Amino acid sequence: MFWTSLDGSFEGDTRHDLVRPGPLDQSSSPRTQGSLVRGNIFKEDGKTPIANALVEIWHCDENEVYDNISDDYKYRGGQRTKADGKYSFKSILPVPYKANPNDDASWRPAHIHMRVSVPNQQDLITQIYFKGGKYVETDRWASAPQAVNRILNITQNSGESEIEFNVILAKEIPLDQKVYDNITGLYTIDENNTLEFTKNDDMLFMKRNGQLTASLSYTGNNTFVSGIGYPKAAFEPQADGSVKLTIERTPGKVYTGTKFLKYNQ
What we know:
The chain is mainly β. The protein folds into two domains: about 15-170, Protocatechuate 3,4-Dioxygenase, subunit A (Sandwich); about 175-260, Lipocalin (Beta Barrel), CATH 2.40.128.50. It is built from one helix and 21 strands. The protein has one helix spanning about 175-185, and strands at about 15, 35-40, 55-60, 75-80, 85-90, 95-100, 105-110, 110-115, 125-130, 150, 155, 160-165, 165-170, 185-190, 195-200, 205-210, 210-220, 225, 230-235, 245-250, 255-260. An eight-stranded antiparallel beta barrel has the order 14-15-16-17-18-19-20-21. Strands 1, 2, 5, 11, 12 and 13 form a six-stranded mixed beta sheet that branches. Strands 4-3-8-9-10 form a five-stranded mixed beta sheet, with no helix packed on it. A hairpin with a 5-residue loop joins β18 and β19. The chain is globular, with a radius of gyration of 19 Å. The protein starts with 15 loop residues before the first strand and ends with a strand. The model is unreliable at about 1-15 and about 20-35 (pLDDT under 50).
């Protein structure tokens, strides 16, 4: 899902231009009109800027495709904030896409993925949407109450679309490595589905049948929650040494499972 990040040092106006090809060579493609995604990264008080926060964004192209395999890394990039906590990316506006080509009900609204990482603050992985965007009201993630502050206005400045998204990071909740060792592994949900949980920095990655589906943050009481509100995963160590999983994928849709493979054995 993630790529080699840049160090925030870019030519000209210091924006990271996601339209140009390549994670390192930003010089071979002309600048094009598009969108500017910018904002500030703050500590939990909502006032103190965070320096050296790694901000990464990615989104689909105008043909509804994510560039996951080419060397161009189009519409993917990263940079570190300076002392003022500011970030900015030059890109284009993404478009809606059908998550399942065979399912007309799987249309997702245009959105931008974002990850913010910094030591001693809780990492954030989330999605931002656009006011008035097609499918925003029908998408189960965009229409969730937790998304209300991530549906953003698009303004115009000299022919360029601008989107501002300020981030307030929560204080990191420390969790002992032994707890991660206990909960990471493979879980049987039913005869057709297996969930895998692995640790990545202070995030818990969830894979379904081998495919990464969510990144979860620890919220306390052995519970992890996605940055977009769902899924929620709660782990219950059992007296016999096993671990029970209760996962709420969307509001009201709850599943349970049991771990059958540990990674620290």
